[in-house]
Specification:
four-stranded mixed sheet, alpha/beta, 14% helix, globular, two-stranded parallel sheet
Length: 99
């Protein structure tokens, strides 16, 4: 179920998305699938890094202003939004998808 949620390019066996949640470019192969809490944001990031070709970033649209915390690591993310931007700046998106 995904009433009141936005899901774009999300692949999973099961998706439960609470009101106000947003997910895009997320790929999940687990049997449990994806569960998004209210106002949760989850984004799949594809890279050309062989050691880390895919990871996810999390946020919360109601609690976090990405512009104000652009350089901070939030929601247990291993990287800040700024670090992800720098990692993928200028990367060929088609090449990431093929990897």
């Amino acid at each position: 179920t995904a009433t009141g949620a936005v899901l774009v390019n999300v692949c999973a066996k099961k998706i439960v998305a609470a009101k106000g949640s947003v997910a895009y470019n997320v790929v999940d192969h687990s049997e449990e699938g994806i569960t998004l809490g209210e106002n949760e944001v989850r984004v799949g990031v594809f890279t050309l890094d062989k050691d880390r070709p895919y990871f996810e970033m999390r946020s919360n649209v109601a609690e976090i202003d990405g512009g104000k915390v652009f350089k901070d690591r939030v929601c247990g993310n291993a990287m800040s939004f700024s670090e992800v931007y720098d990692l993928n700046h200028g990367v060929d998106v088609t090449a990431c998808g093929a990897a």
